[in-house]
Amino acid sequence: MTSGLWELVLKGVWVTIQLLVCSALLGAAVSFVVGVARTHRLWIVRFLAGVYTEVFRGTSALVMIFWVYFVLPIAFGWQLVPLWAGTLALGLTYGAYGSEIVRGALNAVDPAQKEGGIALSFTPWQRLRLILLPQAVPEMIPPFSNLLVELLKGTALVSIMGMGDLAFSGNLVRLALQESAEIYTIVLLIYFVIAFVLTRGMRGLERKLKAGTGKPVGSTPDQELDRPQTTGVGGAVA
Amino acid sequence: MKWDWSAVSGFMPHLWDGLLVTVQILALGSLISFALGLVWALLMRVPSRWVTWPVGVVTEFVRNTPLLVQLFFLFYVLPEWGLTFSALTTGVFAIGLHYSTYTMQVYRAGIEAVPVGQWEAATALNLPLHRTWTAVILPQAVRRVVPALGNYVISMLKDTPMVMAITVLEMLGQARLYSQEHFQFTEPLTVIGVAFIVMSYLASLALRALERRLAH
Q1: pTM for this structure?
Q2: In terms of C-beta distances under 8 Å and separation of at least 24 residues, what long-range contacts does A124-131 make, across chains too?
């Protein structure tokens, strides 16, 4: 491979990372808002959040991307920059999976903790911020780590829409060289390295957050069977 | 926003064609992933590093890299090595292989969840190793893992549109083709979006019912 082609691959890596960071931020925001809404005391809020989750988990991420790219501009007149269109589609879809993680972790907090908050006449917002989230967030980290790797894999989908990410630059190099084994091996290895760095980083974060809660780090076989499905519907959650 | 019902009815025959292909991919992909995942899980229990280490690395690699790039790899590289398969076969194999690295973890957890007393009882009854596995351990392990496997079938359903990228005309491929021929994007894409939501919702309901039955 020539240096020009390497430059193409590096540009692809950069686009993939930008897309990953943007859609992870949007996805995290959606996860927390929808996940907390699913534990709200008003049934209509819980119901709407549940509908959101079912709809966005129900469609395929790729169908969602097609919809954002082709239907939004025609039907609503919103023409988005490719990066934002990809971020929107991926963030909304993976945010729906993430909301199940947040809901599961919030429900797993000992009810006595919540009752203690009520007894001390905390407002609902104070209970959430000072009691529930500090205990729930460390439990969310391992499933969120899995979801982040799924999101990384999901970013490759935007290459079908012609956005110049890592998978797309792989295709360009294949066309330029008329040879595919080498470039696709390189592309797969780069994705693997990014995923490895992400999981290591998340493990460090888990250790840091759990330092104050006195709970063990890592997963047990039982948790593996109930592992929140990152791409499945109706998975048992935490 | 303009909605044209004639485009919907015009697209419906294509939707059924695409649905048939999607279901085929799903059925064959599930079979491959169930079988191959069990093979990986059993290989990981072989008491030798020379087996577990390569299997662990390969499955970890497949699990953490995008299915889409794996599809491209198989679709473009295998012919260079003299192995030519149809796009559909390649797609089914890629999906089956990708998901086998997930089902492998499910099987592993299911096998580890079998109480150790069952192993000891098999030893006490002097059962040969293959009888211990086929008559004692696996029947109990598989029962535990069915719901988790079902979840991965639903995930697989939502990953089938990716094979469109290697020219297979499943539901999304049909929708794209129809859109480009008739310059109507809204209706076909919305129809298959709804079709996916309905299918995965029904599948999750069926799975929950199955889970309740197996719980007894």
Answers
A1: 0.89
A2: A124/A41, A128/A36
- The DSSP annotation for B107-167 comes to HHHHHHTS-HHHHHHHHHTT--HHHIIIIIIHHHHHHHHHHHHHHHHHHHHHHGGGGGGGT
Q: Is pLDDT above 90 for A221? A: no
pLDDT tens for A36-81 read: 999 998 999 999 999 999 999 989 999 999 999 988 888 787 778 8
Cβ distance B141 to A224 under 8 Å?
no
d(CA A144, CA A160) in angstroms, rounded, equals 26
Contact A66 B189 (CB under 8 A): yes
Domains and CATH numbers, chain A: 3-225 (1.10.3720.10)
Alpha-carbon distance of B55 to A24, in angstroms, equals 31
Chain A residue with minimum CA distance to B3: A75
Which residue of chain B has the CA closest to A97? B155
To the nearest whole Å, the CA of B118 is away from the closest chain A CA by: 17
Interchain CB distance below 8 Å, A76 and B1: yes
Q: Are B8 and B187 in contact (CB under 8 A)?
A: yes
* DSSP type of residue B20: H
The shortest CB-CB distance from B162 to any of A62, A188, A222 is to A62
Architecture of domain B15-171: Orthogonal Bundle (1.10)
